Amino acid sequence: MPYQEIRRMVVEVDEEQLTEPMIQNLVKHLPEQEQLNALAKYKNEYSNLSEPEQFGVVMSSVKRLRPRLSHILFRLQFEEQVNNLRPDILAVNAACDEVRKSRSFGRLLELVLLLGNYMNAGSRNAQSFGFDLSSLCKVRDTKSADQKTTLLHFLAQVCEEEFPDVIKFVDDLEHVDRASRVSAENLEKSLRQMERQLLQLERDLETFSSPDDPNDMFFTKMAISFTLAREQYGKLVIMHSNMETLYQNVLEYFAVDPKKTSVEELFTDLSNFRSMFTQALKENFRQRETEEKQRRARAAKEKAEREKKERQQKKRRLLEVNAENDETGVMDSLLEALQSGAAFRDRRKRVPRPRGEAHITLLSLQASYSLPASQSKHS
Fold first, then answer.
1. Which intervals of the chain are annotated as region Disordered (predicted)?
2. Is residue 128 domain-resident?
3. How far apart are CA 169 and CA 175, in angstroms?
4. Considering the entire predicted model, what is its pTM?
5. Is 100 in the same domain as 185?
6. d(Cα 72, Cα 13) in Å, to the nearest integer?
7. pLDDT in tens, 144-202
C-alpha cells in the first residue's frame, strides 16, 4: 500500500480501511517524534531514501502522530471492550440476586447444617449455627463406611425423596457458573484503563490546534466518539457500582469475610457445588437403575427356579397317580376273576377229535349200556 494512502487513512480517520492490527503495527514500529522531525528535513531527497525512511518522511507531516494513532486504536477497540465488560457485570449482578433470593438454596443450606450437626453430635462442632459456604464442596469428601457413597449422594437422595422443591436451586442459580469466570480485579483494571484513555483523549482534544490539512478529520470524529464513549463508560461505572453493592450484601447475608473471599472464589465454590449436586443426582439415578435391573434379574431367576420346581413336582405327582392307577386296575381284575370263577377254569386249549372216532365211541357206549337189558329179558 502506498505510504501516501496510509497517511490519508490516518488523517481522515477512515474506519472502513483502518483496522486494529494495522494501527497496532504502526504504533509498534513508528519512530520517535524526534526521529520523525529529523527525517522531515530530507523531504527533498525522498527518492534517495530507503523505504523505512521514505515512510518516516511521509508520516512526519502528520501532527501529533503517536497520540493520534493511540486514540484511533482506542476508538476501534472501545465497543469491544464494552461488550466484554457488560456481560461480566450483568452475570455477577444476576448471580448475587439468585443466591440471595433463592428459597430452595436457603432450604438446602438448612439441610446441610442439620446433617452436619447430626454427624458432629457430641463433638465441639455440635449445634453449630452456620457454616462457611466454601465448605459446601467438602460434603463430597465424607464417605460411607463401605466407601461406596458419599454424604453428597445421601443429601441428594434425601432431597429427591423428602424435599423435591430443594432441587430447584440448581435452576435458580443459573448465572453462578458465568459469574465464577469473572475477575473483579480485572474488571476494575479495565474500567480504570478506560477512564485514563478517556481523560487523555479529552485533554488532547482540548489542546488540539486547528489542522492545516482540510482533510484532517481527527478532531471532528474523535470529539463525537469521546461523547459517546463517555456516556457508555458512565453506564458501566453505575453497573459496576451496583454489582459491588449486591456482592457486599451477599457477603453480609451469608457472613462471608470479604477480605478472604473474592467474587470469583465465592461463585466458583457455588458453581462447583451445583455441578457436583447435579452429578450426584445422575449417579443416584444410575444406581437405582442398576439396582432395579438386578432386582428384576433376581426376580426372573427366582421365577424360573420356582416354575422349574413346580414342573418337577407336577411330574412326580403325575407319576405317582399313574402308579396308583396301575395297582388299582390289577386288583380290580383279580377280584372280578374270583367272583366269576374264571380264575378256576382250565384255560388250556382242547384238541378236537376226528369225526369217525367219535361215532365208534358212541356205538360202543350204546352197546355197553344195552347189554344188561337183553340179559334181563332172557332171564
1. 285-323
2. yes
3. 12
4. 0.71
5. yes
6. 7
7. 888 888 999 999 999 999 999 999 999 999 999 999 999 999 999 999 999 999 999 99
